[in-house]
């Protein structure tokens, strides 16, 4: 059952920061950096994060990219950002996209953050191979971070080489583009540029830099890092910055920091419900990979579930299934408890009272998640908005065991279900062996008057199929960008069924075997 919350991961708010047990009071090393080089003509980058939160920002520069070559560019996103695509394709544009040419006045920084990784707290993670180039201002005045991944070692690199390979960066490009097209809040990939450097992984691979755009890169881990410094003023400034950029309505709350916590709980509950509805398995839901904005971030070992099974895990290192498909809501709630914990001093002077307040705010997660997930399932099954929960919820709940025992492909089932709404149940009947429970379910469902056209607007035909993603990335690594380009093209319009694209809609052939993804990106 994917609606329930197994109590495998306790989410209560504790006092992890009490008595300085994990207090991390080291200051970031002072780093001297050469002045920024050539100005880019069309781009103005703000530095609000670096100005307002200098304690979390280490001035830093990208490594050289000896032979930059554009591999992918989201022209639609570029236009949205007011960036000239011809310029981006030229030498200065490629310089910007690899961080080697930054506009005058930009203050490029590596950001500090902590994180619970698979449940264990790492006090100092930070951008080990990434840089915030600065913020772009949209026409609406909203800021968007322009950020690079794979741009060289920083003071947070620890043992890492600071680099990224072509395959994983294109993977983020493909999957985040698909998520955006599916209407799911996400960081975006503006471009992927091959650097001409070699990257040593299990084999030697071509290196690349991803230019990522996000409404910000503030994470649960950013708040945890700040809290661990013990600097209350910094924590307050960070919270104010987050409120201002993402949850401005909280500013007018009687208790704005509680408003912030509630808002993040709410956006994350809705985000995870959307993941569940499309069968997205994030794979590495560490607290450093959870944003305050409610955007999906960090496309490492993520993948889309095919046969419905709540225990679905793809990541090679997730041995305990902590981040399995069906656990995602529980883990999100656990992560939000860590956020609440880090915010405690801002919630009340009395720690006891602050814990009460935080616990109550966290209680909002289950309500918000259940409402969002139930609504998503209502829409997937084409049922009317006013349908009572005590009819809808049991009906939807009965579908899960049918899908699970039949190893039914999540995406194709819901798309084919609209044919059943139109009167032809054979496509979905062909997906299960045990027809009795399905027929019984279909009969009761059809009596509620499902709207087939509405279903086709919310059930995608095309999601990034694991075997196609792998095939396309292998081709790109070997120098052929065609398959990635075609895949991205298909995924940009996930709800429009197009003749000739059947191969993009089908699950992996049996000989693809079980799919494993790797974090060693
Ligand atoms: P991730 O698994 O991508 O969320 O990364 C977790 C942490 O490891 C972050 O602090 C990253 O900056 C850092 N990291 C991952 N890969 C590298 C690398 N190749 N070089 C330096 N730091 C890295
Ligand atoms: Mg990360």
Automatic annotation (TrEMBL):
Q: Which domain of life is it from?
A: Bacteria
| InterPro entries reported for this sequence | SelO
Please tell me where Mg(2+) binds in this chain. 289, 298
Q: Which top EC class is given?
A: transferase
Instruction: Give the cofactors, semicolon-separated.
Output: Mg(2+); Mn(2+)
Signal peptide range: none
Per the record's keyword annotation, is Metal-binding included, yes or no? yes
What are the record keywords, sorted?
ATP-binding, Magnesium, Manganese, Metal-binding, Nucleotide-binding, Nucleotidyltransferase, Transferase
Residues recorded as binding ATP, renumbered to this chain, are 126, 128-129, 149, 161-162, 212, 219, 298
Q: Which residues form a coiled coil?
A: none
Active site annotation, chain numbering: 288 (proton acceptor)
Question: What family does the entry list?
Answer: Belongs to the SELO family.
Explain the purpose of this protein.
Answer: Nucleotidyltransferase involved in the post-translational modification of proteins. It can catalyze the addition of adenosine monophosphate (AMP) or uridine monophosphate (UMP) to a protein, resulting in modifications known as AMPylation and UMPylation.
Mind telling me what this protein is named? Protein nucleotidyltransferase YdiU
């Amino acid at each position: 059952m994917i609606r329930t919350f197994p109590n495998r991961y306790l989410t209560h708010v504790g006092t992890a920061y009490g008595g300085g047990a994990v207090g991390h009071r080291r200051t970031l090393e002072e780093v001297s950096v050469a002045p920024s080089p050539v100005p880019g003509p069309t781009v103005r980058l703000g530095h609000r994060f670096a100005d307002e939160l200098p304690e979390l920002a280490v001035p830093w520069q990208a490594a050289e990219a000896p032979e930059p070559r554009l591999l992918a560019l989201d022209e639609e996103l570029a236009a949205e950002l007011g960036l000239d695509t011809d310029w981006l394709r030229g030498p200065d544009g490629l310089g910007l996209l690899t961080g080697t040419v930054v506009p005058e006045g930009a203050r490029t920084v590596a950001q500090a953050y902590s994180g619970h990784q698979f449940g264990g707290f790492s006090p100092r993670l930070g951008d080990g191979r990434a840089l915030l180039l600065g913020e772009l201002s949209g026409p609406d005045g909203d800021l968007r971070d322009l950020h690079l991944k794979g741009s060289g070692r920083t003071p947070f690199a620890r043992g890492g080489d600071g680099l990224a390979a072509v395959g994983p960066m294109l993977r983020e490009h493909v999957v985040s583009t698909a998520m955006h097209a599916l209407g799911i809040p996400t960081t975006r990939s503006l471009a992927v540029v091959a650097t001409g450097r070699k990257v040593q992984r299990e084999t030697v691979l071509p290196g690349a830099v991803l230019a990522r755009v996000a409404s910000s890169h503030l994470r649960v881990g950013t708040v945890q890092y700040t809290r661990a410094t013990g600097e209350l003023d910094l924590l307050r400034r960070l919270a104010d910055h987050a409120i201002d950029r993402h949850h401005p309505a909280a500013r007018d709350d009687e208790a704005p920091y509680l408003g912030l916590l509630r808002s993040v709980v709410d956006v994350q509950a809705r985000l995870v419900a959307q993941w569940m509805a499309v069968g997205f398995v994030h794979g590495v839901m560490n607290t450093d990979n959870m944003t305050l904005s409610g955007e999906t971030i960090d496309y490492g070992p993520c993948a889309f579930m095919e046969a419905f099974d709540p225990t679905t895990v793809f990541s090679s290192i997730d041995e305990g299934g902590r981040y399995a498909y069906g656990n995602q809501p529980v883990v999100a709630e656990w992560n939000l408890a860590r956020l609440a914990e880090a915010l405690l001093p801002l919630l009340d002077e009395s720690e006891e009272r602050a814990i009460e307040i935080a616990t109550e705010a966290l209680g909002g997660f289950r309500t918000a998640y259940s409402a969002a997930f139930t609504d998503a399932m209502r829409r997937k099954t084409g049922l009317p908005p006013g349908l009572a929960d005590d009819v809808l919820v049991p009906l939807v709940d009965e579908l899960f065991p049918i899908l699970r025992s039949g190893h039914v492909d999540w995406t194709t089932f819901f798309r084919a279900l609209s044919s059943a709404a139109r009167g032809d149940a054979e496509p979905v009947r062909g997906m299960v062996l045990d027809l009795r429970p399905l027929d019984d379910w279909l009969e009761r469902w059809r009596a509620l008057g499902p709207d087939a056209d509405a279903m086709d607007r919310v059930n995608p035909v095309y999601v990034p199929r694991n075997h196609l993603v792998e095939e396309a990335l292998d081709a790109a690594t070997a120098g052929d960008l065609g398959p990635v380009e075609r895949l991205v093209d298909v995924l940009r319009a996930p709800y429009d069924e197009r003749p000739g694209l059947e191969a993009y809609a089908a699950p992996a052939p049996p000989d693809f075997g079980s799919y494993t993804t790797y974090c060693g990106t």
